[in-house]
Automatic annotation (TrEMBL):
It comes from Pseudomonas asuensis. InterPro entries: AraC-bd (IPR003313), AraC_XylS_family_regulators (IPR050204), Homeodomain-like_sf (IPR009057), HTH-like (IPR037923), HTH_AraC (IPR018060). It comes from the Bacteria. Residues 112-209 form the HTH araC/xylS-type domain. Regulatory protein of the TOL plasmid xyl operons. XylS activates the xylXYZLTEGFJQKIH operon required for the degradation of toluene, m-xylene and p-xylene. This is Transcriptional regulator. Keywords: DNA-binding, Transcription, Transcription regulation. Pfam families: AraC_binding (PF02311), HTH_18 (PF12833).
Length: 220
């Protein structure tokens, strides 16, 4: 028997028998994701599945990377955003499972080709398939190299470029809805969420601080 508290992470291997019950009469809630084991192994280059002793973890690294999947229950994820999150999850599982990492060589030219493609796309939605093709590097090695060389994931890098584009448009007089769509976001709320996460304030508040007027179109 194992006991988990709010904020903990349960990690179960495929086909592992288990059950669960509330520790008190107040009941309990949880959110769950299923990940194909082969995806984790592909990301880790064929290594065995990371093992979490006791199946429970309070390591904050796991909780942090799982936030993206938890929010996807309420808001859709773009394909590249999901693949980024899978990469981060595999790395966190590997780290928390105490797997030793050897030194790896990075392909700078391949990462640069991917980054140039992102810039040329000007905010458009991009998949890891596309980046794999233009870079000539397999997707998970490219994801690893991109993080190591540029300090962020491909999806977060694209998001920052979209935010750069949105800010230029807003300063140029675009309303919030049009700027969001033109910069490659699903809608205004999608842009607002990433803007808040990156800069700590809403686009409207940012414009207000600059003395600019904001316009929002309400659609029924």
């Amino acid at each position: 028997m194992r006991h988990s508290l709010p904020g903990g992470t349960l990690v179960l291997h495929p086909d592992e028998l288990h059950d669960g019950e509330a520790g008190t009469e107040a009941g309990f809630r949880y959110r769950m994701i299923y990940v194909e084991p082969v995806v984790i192994q592909q990301i880790l280059g064929g290594k065995p599945l990371p093992f979490i002793p006791t199946g429970l973890s309070t390591d904050p690294r796991l909780g942090l990377v799982l936030e993206t999947f938890m929010q996807s229950i309420d808001a859709p994820l773009e394909r590249l955003e999901e693949e980024d999150a899978l990469f981060d999850l595999a790395q966190a599982l590997d780290a928390v499972g105490n797997k030793r990492r050897g030194r790896r060589a990075y392909d700078y030219q391949a990462a640069e080709r991917a980054r140039d493609y992102i810039h040329a796309s000007n905010g458009a939605s991009i998949t890891l398939d596309e980046l794999e093709y233009v870079s000539g590097r397999d997707r998970w090695s490219l994801s690893r190299d991109f993080r190591a060389l540029y300090g962020t994931s491909p999806y977060r890098y694209i998001t920052l470029r979209r935010l750069d584009l949105a800010r230029k448009m807003l300063l140029g007089g675009f309303n919030l809805v049009d700027a969001a769509m033109a910069a490659g976001f699903f809608d205004q709320s999608h842009m607002n969420r990433h803007f808040m996460r990156c800069y700590g304030l809403s686009p409207a508040r940012w414009l207000s601080m600059l003395g600019r007027q904001t316009c929002t179109i309400v659609q029924e």
